[in-house]
Amino acid sequence: MRNDGHPKGSWYAETAAIRLPDLPAPEGEVRTGVCVVGAGFTGLGAALALARAGVPVVVLEAARVGSGASGRNGGQVHPGHRQDQAWLESRVGAGEALRLWKLAEAGRAHLADLLADVAPEAGYRPGLIVARHRPGGEGADAAHIDHMARVYGCEALSLVSRDALAEDLGTDVYHGGVLDRDGGHLHPLNLALGMARAVLAAGARICEQAPALSWSRRGGGIEVATSTARIACDRLVLTGDGYLTAIAGTARDRVMPINNFVLVTEPLGARADRILRSGAAAADTRFVVNYFRKTDDGRLLFGGGETYRQTYPADLAGYVRRSLLKIYPGLADVRITHAWGGSVGVTLPRTPLVAAPAPGVTLAAGYSGQGVMLAPYVGHLLGCEAAGDEAASGALESLRRLPTPAFPGGRFLRRPLTMAGLTWYALRDRL
């Protein structure tokens, strides 16, 4: 699906605190050290690392900086990986799972540095609650908390009873949950714009409305073609998540774009004091996750619902509102001021795809909803690797070894087959 800019109805775009200069598309013959495709968290993270290392870099963005998933997601910061550590241990072994945890923790520290140094406007707030949507599960949650403390030294998790959760969230539809004090929430577009501002200040070039159409070998280097220019470079970094195009080759078969939707209410006034009293963000345990948080001016930002076709619901606000009212029926009279949607990239195992599809070419995508924390750091590592940092290359190997097979059915049948499977899991949420 074409992405011409920030989605219509985006509260993030309306409230962005950072304005970038004009970033025109390239023209003619351009020479650089590294070409980065995509100006989301991954691409900007790579460009910032490269520019600060003194490597010439050009970023090609098909639409606008942060206009993909990076600038319009739920803004939730989830530590760790989308799959928990026990799942990773069962798939890749205890040693590799520990390396992946350390990588994620380094990503959390990296995000903290970005928020302090380049994007304080993102307005980070601590606290993330995962709420159980079915009864039972307290024992499993307690075992998870204990395992994380004993094996990984994680002391940030605590069990939340049903009554305490209802008091905090302002709804009694959940059955308890887990508070992660290392998690939190922020304004994701301000983070992306702050990163872009730092990339420009470090001397790199960002080009908007400049989709990369193809790449090919030229002599000992690589040439990337746009509709207006040819970029000659030594190395190529491909990002784009749910907007990966044919330029990614067969790697695109391992990332599926699905559509996710968000709304924002009018300011809730006094009612805001009874919802998410702790100031944390919340997400539930449904396969199609509901996630929500309060904004600084007392609105409720709520994400819910997915579609697996290339079209959107005709009434985005109404589509998401149905999920909102199942959790907060008392908000039926509240006006929805903003609603938007767009694609996010997922992989079959819900682990990110980090690959080297050809010599001198690297790719990262498919964060499966975990990109706010992981993507800037993965991009940073890709940039450091492209600048010759062997330690960064070693850190990326743990991600490259994660099994991320292609979706079944090939290019033409993968979507209907995946739709059938995902729809089944979505139906289970209602049972």
UniProtKB/TrEMBL annotation:
PANTHER family in the cross-refs: FAD DEPENDENT OXIDOREDUCTASE DOMAIN-CONTAINING PROTEIN, SARCOSINE DEHYDROGENASE-RELATED
GO cellular component, one term: cytoplasm
Source organism of this protein record: Phenylobacterium parvum
Keywords, comma-separated and alphabetical: Oxidoreductase
Family matches, as SUPFAM superfamilies: FAD/NAD(P)-binding domain
Lineage summary: Bacteria, Pseudomonadati, Pseudomonadota, Alphaproteobacteria, Caulobacterales
Annotated Pfam families: DAO
Domain FAD dependent oxidoreductase: 34-382
Source superkingdom: Bacteria
GO terms assigned for molecular function: oxidoreductase activity
Name recorded for this polypeptide: FAD-dependent oxidoreductase
Record bears the keyword Nucleotidyltransferase: no
